[in-house]
Amino acid sequence: MNFKDINIGLMLHKRALECEIEMSRLCKFFGCSEQDILDMYTVKSLDCEILLKWSRILEYDFFRIYTQNLILYSPPSAIITNDKESSQMPYFRKNIYTKEVINFILELIESGEKTKNQIIEEYNIPKTTLYKWIEKNRK
């Protein structure tokens, strides 16, 4: 799922239905009208503060959808920059994969959707890392 494929409004709506949260509760929580909530269900992206509120009320980390996407589709860390010390921003290593990302990659291989070589090239996952995941998955 690329950024262009993420439709956060649709995901919010699905999760709200799963949680069976009444519209009146959502309106009160957000301090808005029912139409405002329905409008949020139709947008492809939302302001971070609003998404954080949705994450709280629906008890789901919607930001993780974006961070996992970054992990999969960003260029390798070494190519980006070597001046991490000069940046004032926190540095996050790219090679920290969540269970969800690992499972997603393994499902692509098991389903035959992608080959091991395609995974290595497309997602910049080291060959040894991929084979460790496959071996652990077999146990």
TrEMBL record:
Give start-end ranges for the coiled-coil region(s).
Answer: none
One Pfam annotation reads: HTH_7
Sequence ranges assigned to domain Resolvase HTH in this UniProt record: 93-134
Xref: InterPro entries: Homeodomain-like_sf, Resolvase_HTH_dom
Q: What name has this protein been given in UniProt?
A: Resolvase HTH domain-containing protein
